[in-house]
Amino acid sequence: MQYIIIVVIVLLALFIVGLMIRRKHNVVIQRLEQEKMQIQHYPIFEELTKVKSLNMNGQTEEKFEHWRNIWTEVIDVHVIKIDSMLFDAEEYIDRFKFKKASNVEQAIEEYIAKCEKSKNLIISELEELIGSEEKNRIEIEQIKEHYRSARKTLLAHQYSFGPALAALEKRVEQFTPKFEEYDALTVDGNYLQAREIVLGLNTEAQTIYHLLSEVPTLLTEIQTKIPAAIHELRNGQREMEAQSYYLNHLELTKYLDDLEEELETLKSKLADLDVATVAPRLNEINDEIENYYDLLEKEVIARNYVDKNCDDTFQTLNEVVKATKEISNEAVYVQNSYHLPENEADIPKIGLKQLEIIQKRFELLVSRVKDEKSAYSSLQEELVEISEEIERIKDEQEQFSSRLKNLRIDENKARAKLDSLKRILQETDRQLSKANIPGIPEEMDARIEEAEEQIYIVMQSLQDVPLNMNRVQGNIENAEKCIQEVSKHAQEMIENVMLIERIIQYGNRYRATNQKVNDLLLESEYAFHQYRYIKALEDAAAAVELAEPGAIKRIEELVQDELYEKSQY
């Protein structure tokens, strides 16, 4: 009994699954039926009737018959085949032969896709044919208008086109047979072929329009503007050469001769309507001509510069030579009293040698100016270089002369500085002697001795003959540094001694009540009498801070006020 129930359940499940699969297939069949009906009832023949408004000849008639045959095949063959396959698929589904049904459904999909492709092809070609007829009709009128305008332009302005007139007329007249060919194709219903004619004519019309605009402009450049510039350049060259300008380096005559020949070649190319070659070359020629104008102007400017500055440069050169010789003599005299480094002592000699070379360059420049066989632009460059070199040597010699004059000033400053350092050291000795201190530490004595030694070294260097100011300056710097340090340390020591005394006096009040304070103060007093003032200050400060924290700061302020009052006094 259990096995029977299981079998029944399995069969029931299989039946339910089968029903579900059949339902899915029925949905597919309904969709395919709907797509078949859309193809079958699509008004393709109504669309084809639009062609009858055109000339039903030639290509149009062939297309119409071809489309009608294709669609007739779709309706009479493919749709009927699809109906039959749909019927077979429904029988397979009813009998639960789903695999065969799927195969048939796939075949129906392929047939429907084929029919859809045929429909789309017909519609596309139909729209192209009808659209070509409409575009052709509009554009051909525009092209004819361009053609009539071009003919009028050529007739009215024949002179403007010069040798290119014949070629332009020939290209314009080529429109006429194309128009005739277009009309014939249209009458015969060959609208797509006529479309190709229209596209070609449109491109040619644009080209003709460009040529009609460019050719007169380019011809004016070749026949009028550039020849006028050539004539002007030749006249300018003759006038400048008559005024003794040297222009051979420009090779202007050769360039202008070659240019006149090239203009004839460009004119021939323009007669062949080779605008793409002629136009950019004419732009280059205009740039070249403009460059020659600039070069001629440069020669005029250069001549004015040379004429204006040649005498001034000669005068400046003589003045610098004279001044350098005087500086050289002055250097020899100064070296009797002051030592000069070798590289500095040779500055006037080197300057005189350089000026001798410059004099030769200037003499050569003057001879070239008189010979009138050199371009003024090159003469100007040479003159500028000579002037700059003279100015450089002049500045160098003036700086050297200034250093010579400053040697005496520097000596006086050094002696004044020495006196100042002596006074500082003497004042430091006086302060140490006047200060109420037990004695001076060995370290401070050594510093003072070193400072005195540095003073002595400066005094000895100031007695040298010839006097070496570089050495003197170095010794002065060393002495100043040493004496400043001595003065600073002496002042600090005096302040520390004064501070120690005030701290010990302040701490005496706590000796009887605080043994630790008493011990520290005894140590501070011992160090104080041994001239160990830093140690004494540390012990005294520690003792007072132990007894009364913060007291040291108040004592320091009082000492500073006392020192200020003494300095004021």
Give an overview in words.
The chain is an all-alpha fold. It has 18 helices and no strands. The longest helix has 60 residues, at 275-334. The chain is flat, with a radius of gyration of 58 Å. It starts with a helix and ends with a helix. The mean pLDDT is 78.
Outline the fold blueprint.
Elements: H1 2-40, H2 44-48, H3 58-94, H4 98-156, H5 158-161, H6 165-173, H7 175-187, H8 191-242, H9 252-271, H10 275-334, H11 342-345, H12 347-371, H13 376-434, H14 442-461, H15 469-507, H16 515-529, H17 533-547, H18 551-568
Helix pairs in contact: 1-3, 1-4, 3-4, 4-6, 4-8, 7-8, 8-9, 8-10, 9-10, 10-12, 10-13, 12-13, 13-14, 13-15, 14-15, 15-16, 15-17, 15-18, 16-17
Family: Belongs to the EzrA family.
InterPro entries: EzrA (IPR010379)
Protein name: Septation ring formation regulator EzrA
Rg over alpha carbons? 58 Å
Q: Largest beta sheet, briefly?
A: none
Mean pLDDT: 78
- Number of helical regions: 18
Secondary-structure element series: HHHHHHHHHHHHHHHHHH
Helix/strand class: mainly alpha
**Residue runs with pLDDT of under 50 for 5 or more positions:** none
Strand content: under 5%
The amount of helix comes to over 70%
Query: How many extended strands?
Result: 0
What is the rounded distance between the termini?
Answer: 138 Å
Shape: flat
Family: Belongs to the EzrA family.
Main location: membrane
Pfam family, one: EzrA
Keywords: Cell cycle, Cell division, Cell membrane, Coiled coil, Membrane, Septation, Transmembrane, Transmembrane helix
